[in-house]
Amino acid sequence: MEAKKDTVLITGATSGIGYDFATIFAEKGYNLFLASRNREKLDDIKVSFEKQYDILVMTMSVDLSKVKSARTVYEETLIQNAEINVLINNAGFGVQGEHIDLEMSKVEEMIQLNITTLTEFCTLFGNEMKKRRKGYILNIASTAAYQPVPYLAAYSATKSYVLNFSEALAKELEDYQVVVTCLSPGATSTNFFDTAGIGEKKKGLWANSARMRSRDVAIIGVNALFAKKLSVIAGIKNSFLAFTNRFAPRNMTANISKKLIKNTVNT
Ligand SMILES: NC(=O)c1ccc[n+]([C@@H]2O[C@H](COP(=O)([O-])OP(=O)(O)OC[C@H]3O[C@@H](n4cnc5c(N)ncnc54)[C@H](OP(=O)(O)O)[C@@H]3O)[C@@H](O)[C@H]2O)c1
C-alpha cells in the first residue's frame, strides 16, 4: 500500500510567491490544499498539477479577508480528511498612500487578511500540530516589517506583527516539535505592486530590475522552514538593509524610509 502523502495548505496560491510555493511542494510530491478567491485559477491549477504530478490537489475558493474565514477553511480540511502537515500563510496585500486618505474598508480588509486570518490559521492548525508533535508553519512577512514605512504605514505595521508574532509562536511551539518560520521578501516580481496601487516603476527601490524572482523567494522560504530557522530575509541585499537598520536611531530610519518611499508611491 502506498504511504499517505503529507499535505500542505497554502493561502493565496493562485499567483506570485504562493503559486511558486504550490509548484515547489507539488514537485516534492506533497498533496496540496489551496485557499484563494479566484475559482477559475484554482480549477486550472488543480487540473494541470494533478496531470503533471502524482498528487491530489484540493481547492477552496474563499475570501480570507472575511471574519472567521480561517475557521471555514479549517472545517473544510476536516470534511476532506486532509491532515495538514505544513501550513503556509502567504495571502496578503498592501495599500499605499497617505494613511488618512486611504479607504478605511480597504485597510480593515488588509488587517483582517494579513493579521487576523493568519493568526487564526496558526491557532487552529498549530493546535493540531501540537497534538501530533509534528508540523511546519511558514508565515510571510516582508522587509517592510523591519522599520516604519511612511505611505505604506498600515501595511508595514501588519508585517511587523507577522514577524514578531511568528518568532514568539516559534519559541512556544518548539517544545512540541512544531516549527514556525517567518519569511520576509523584499521587492519581488508579482501582482503585489498593481494590487497596492504602486504600479510599474522604472527607477528606484521597486524598479523591475530590483525585484527578485518569486520562485527564488519561495525556495528561500521553504529551505529556511525545513532548516528550522526562526526567520529569513530573501536575498543578500535585503538582509543587509534590514541588518543595518538595527544600528540606526528609529527617527533616522523613519526619515530614510520616508525619502526612499515618497517618490515611488502615488500620493
Ligand atoms: N511582491 C512583493 O514585493 C512582496 C514583498 C514583501 C512581501 N510580500 C508578501 O508576499 C505575499 C504574497 O504576495 P505576492 O507578492 O505573491 O502577491 P500576489 O501575486 O498579488 O498574490 C497574492 C495572493 O493572495 C491571494 N489573496 C489576496 N487577497 C485574498 C483574499 N482576500 N482572500 C484569499 N486570497 C487572497 C491572491 O489570490 P486570489 O486573487 O485568487 O484571491 C493571490 O494568490 C503577501 O503576503 C505579500 O504581502 C510581497
From TrEMBL:
Key words, A-Z: Oxidoreductase
Keyword Mitochondrion: no
Pfam family, one: adh_short
InterPro entries according to UniProt: NAD(P)-bd_dom_sf, Sc_DH/Rdtase_CS, SDR_fam
Annotated GO MF terms: oxidoreductase activity
Keyword Oxidoreductase: yes
Superkingdom, taxonomy of origin: Bacteria
Family label: Belongs to the short-chain dehydrogenases/reductases (SDR) family.
Name of this protein: SDR family oxidoreductase
